[in-house]
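A.,

Following up on our hallway conversation. Structure tokens first:
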């Protein structure tokens, strides 16, 4: 017979009573694994034809610019190129997420200067901000200590948050990226004065594919950015939270401990630790 996986948790009722709960999570774990593998396979299957289509769409769009064709046709070709880009991005993010959920470890090998990373990410998005009529401000404390982590992944998180903040800001808005030390953590906050997020949505936006506002604002999105961000941040022993007021704006805050945690398994979640003896 195949070995079962049990989740064991202990709860102390009072000094003399301890309740042990054994939960058979074999099937759940298997389903989680099947889901992750399915997404991974699908992503890989889609990637090859998609890169061909992307290439063709790019070529066609370039040719259409100089060819004698009706403007309507040119517009359609441009749209094909844009939408193909969105699918390609979605497939890449899907593969990213599957890889992380499949338990591939983050490599916490870099000494990451989050203040520098915030400035660099803002720099990368400056053009997008300008085009959107949004002012980007960075505010970093001097001499913020480095954290142990995966620089490329953390950079991806910051870019995602700032990108969202710009995307959901009105013309003339301001996005502020601040980094400071807060006790044992480094705190990075991305604040906007955009459309905000409803309370009911706030609990769900970190789920994969969840989008609060289906009407796309300033370009597409996959609904995967925040799911990936949460994986990366928690893989660093940190937390990502959001505060928001509908219509007034949102602030996403990432906290990363200055002292690196012991590497934790990415997924499936580790069984709950038994409570410390009273
Ligand atoms: P995407 O932006 O690609 O749709 P994300 O996972 O990054 O996916 O975000 C999920 C959803 O959370 C978005 O579709 C949007 O509804 C909401 N959201 C994220 N950031 C903001 C923000 N700064 N202001 C308002 N809504 C936001």
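Then the amino acids I'd put at each of the 278 positions:
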């Amino acid at each position: 017979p195949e070995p079962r996986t049990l989740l064991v948790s202990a709860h102390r009722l009072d000094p003399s009573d301890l309740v042990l709960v054994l939960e058979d999570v074999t099937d759940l774990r298997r389903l989680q694994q099947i889901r992750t593998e399915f997404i991974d396979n699908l992503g890989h299957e889609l990637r090859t034809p998609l890169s061909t289509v992307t290439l063709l769409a790019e070529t066609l769009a370039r040719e259409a610019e100089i060819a004698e064709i009706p403007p309507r046709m040119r517009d359609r070709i441009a749209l094909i190129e844009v939408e193909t880009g969105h699918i390609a991005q979605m497939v890449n993010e899907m593969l990213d997420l599957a890889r992380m959920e499949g338990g591939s470890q983050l490599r916490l090998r870099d000494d990451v200067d989050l203040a520098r990373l915030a400035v660099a990410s803002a720099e990368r998005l400056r053009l997008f901000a300008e085009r959107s009529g949004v002012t980007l401000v960075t505010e970093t404390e001097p001499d913020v200590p480095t954290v142990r982590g995966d620089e490329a992944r953390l950079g991806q998180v910051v870019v995602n948050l700032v990108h969202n903040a710009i995307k959901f800001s009105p013309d003339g808005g301001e996005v502020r990226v601040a980094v400071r030390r807060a006790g044992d953590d480094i705190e990075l906050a991305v604040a906007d004065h955009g459309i905000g997020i409803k309370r009911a949505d706030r609990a769900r936006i970190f789920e994969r594919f969840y989008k609060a506002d289906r009407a796309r604002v300033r370009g597409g999105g996959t609904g995967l950015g925040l799911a990936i961000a949460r994986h990366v941040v928690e893989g660093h022993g940190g937390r990502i939270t959001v505060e928001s007021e509908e219509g007034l704006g949102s602030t996403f805050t990432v906290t990363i401990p200055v002292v690196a945690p012991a590497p934790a398994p990415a997924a499936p979640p580790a069984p709950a630790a038994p409570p410390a003896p009273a």
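The chain has a mean pLDDT of 88. Curious whether your intuition agrees with the design.

B.
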